[in-house]
Amino acid sequence: MAEETSYKDKKVINIGTVCELTGLSERQIRYYEERKLIFPDRSKGKTRKYSFNDIESLMKIANMMEEGTQTYEIRQKMKKEKEIASKQAVRGEIQGQLNARFGVQDGRRFRS
């Protein structure tokens, strides 16, 4: 069965709305895209489409840029955060499988 995509991951927001929500200019957002910090989808008409998660990322990027962080450093930090999240997801899956296999629920063993 296909996994449902969270509404936060769906890329449906246009760049004008992103500008209104974030206070960033279209130029800033495009710059972040050029620097490989954000990856919008494109519609058939080549319009950029963003998700709510993209908007959160843009806010983090803008704050780090204001603090003087270079785009290379931001990209490295984001890459590391993504790797950590991926490892945690895998650990969670494995733990769930082990719990199911050995009858563990909320840290206590249960009878099946």
From TrEMBL:
Keywords: DNA-binding, Repressor, Transcription, Transcription regulation. Transmembrane segments: none annotated. Residues 12-80 form the HTH merR-type domain. The keyword Oxidoreductase does not apply. It comes from the Bacteria. PROSITE patterns: HTH_MERR_2 (PS50937). This is MerR family transcriptional regulator TnrA. It comes from Bacillus carboniphilus. The lineage of its organism: Bacteria, Bacillati, Bacillota, Bacilli, Bacillales.
